[in-house]
Design a protein that fits this description.
This protein folds into two domains: 58 residues, no CATH class; 31 residues, no CATH class. The protein is 44% helix and 0% strand. The model has no long low-confidence stretch (mean pLDDT 80). The chain is mainly α.
Length: 89
């Protein structure tokens, strides 16, 4: 079993994620764009939020292959299926 993730200096970002997840649990819509150069902890931040919320519902995770990164919504399609996301633009 993996030890709990400890993040330092990310309290504001974790609070933003917590607020978004609270809205989603309540039934409100929401979206998050997490943009940063490689190596700045995006994955660690999302993993910490996922670990916190695993007991509250399913946590879905997808990573796009290099060849899929230019395909619109490839991550959503991997999680939800192409029928849900749609194929038109």
């Amino acid at each position: 079993m993996r030890s709990p993730l400890r993040l330092y200096g990310r309290d504001d970002e974790l609070a933003t994620l917590e607020n978004l997840l609270t809205l989603l649990r309540r039934g409100d819509g929401g979206a998050l764009v997490l943009a940063a150069p490689p190596g700045l902890g995006r994955t660690a931040l999302l993993r910490a939020a996922a670990e916190t919320h695993r007991d509250r519902g399913p946590v879905l995770w997808a990573t796009a292959a290099s060849s899929e990164r230019a395909v619109p919504y490839s991550g959503l399609r991997a999680l939800l299926g192409s029928d849900v996301v749609g194929s038109g633009a």
